[in-house]
Amino acid sequence: MSGNKKTFFKNMLLFLALMGPGIITGSVDNDAGGITTYSVAGATYGYKLLWTLIPSFIVLLVIQEMNARMGIVTGKGLADLIRENFGVKITFFIFLGLFTADIGNTATEFAGVAGSMQVFGISKYLAVPLVAIAVWFLIVKGTYKFAEKVFLIFSLFLLSYGVSAILSKPDWSQVGTAIIKPTLEFNTDYLSMTIGVIGTTIAPWMQFYMQSSVIEKGIKLEDYKYTIWDVIIGCIATIVVAFFIIVASAATLHVNHIKINDAKDAAMALKPLAGALASKVFAFGLFIASVFSAAILPIATAFYICEAFGFEAGVDKKLEEAPQFYFLFTTIMAIAVAIILIPNAPLIAITIWTQVINGILLPVVLISMIMLVNNKDIMGNYINKPVNNGIAWSTIVILIVLTVVLVLSSIIPNIL
């Protein structure tokens, strides 16, 4: 075997050993809320909003790279760095908001579990508790390595949306045109949906999970190049799945003028249009995404709260070693499940106000990140370069503007 081949296989093995945080963080972004947003976008506007996936990819890549670099260089999570550099009071109010929002987010994920199982004729009163128990045992009784393998398999399953897209028989020439020739409409509904598609790419809790998972995996500075490929692949996977969902919805629901409110509606509407297989594959994807996020969200929340206030945290820790971590994880799961099992629970209101809280906190988290990653006392020679800063600040300004508009449009209808 030549030297080049040996080097290639060595690098490939190292990458396979180190991959996980970037792919999992990217994939979990396609949660029940994200799938609903993409489904409604495709059903309402056809292929017109496919162009938004390009800026979404850039935004996701820029932010996740900074997270990974901070975690590797400092060996500390984002919550820890915020507490050390901005004080306990600011940290407390940030995390109080995040904790509240993440309970709502987790409830939304279990709503996705309930909705997807309805397509298969299974009651939420059976599906939701069983999924919650399975997730609890995976995290509390399992190890980080085992949980990570399960999450990577879940990430792979999300590509099943490609099957739904192909079975929907889209017009691929129209798809290509929509990507390279953006369609802009200056009306309230179109701009709100554009903001929703781009905005669903970034959530405050994702930044904490990414950095914490890099640390828990024990990735070192010399492994940075492998982690960057992990981040890139995760971002690509996120956008590809979003692309398939929009295409599947556009090729079936939009052309038949069918309006939907959530991802479950999309799955059920696909049956008479693209066949039972397309419908069930779509519902299966929603189920996987919802279970995936229902596990990751409580982990991320428990991790950054414990980290911020000096408690032991981590999936590799035993119950007696990190009681606060597992107490928070269990509490978030229990509250979210209880909300979903309440008959006629106001899920739409919960989702809207969760988005509002996320929207208010997102600029605070992103500005904290950009200040930290440019602090030479923290990052040494690994601070952002001028070009990186230009891209990062531009991204943050755009996100802040979009977020403010999204929050205001949620509170004040027809503001656009």
From TrEMBL:
GO terms for biological process: iron ion transmembrane transport. One of its GO terms (molecular function) is cadmium ion transmembrane transporter activity. The chain crosses the membrane at residues 49-66, 86-107, 119-139, 151-170, 190-210, 231-251, 281-305, 325-342, 348-370, 391-412. It is a multi-pass membrane protein. Keywords: Membrane, Transmembrane, Transmembrane helix, Transport. Its main location: membrane. GO terms for cellular component: plasma membrane. InterPro entries: NRAMP_fam. It comes from the Bacteria. It is found in: Membrane. This is Nramp family divalent metal transporter. It comes from Aceticella autotrophica.
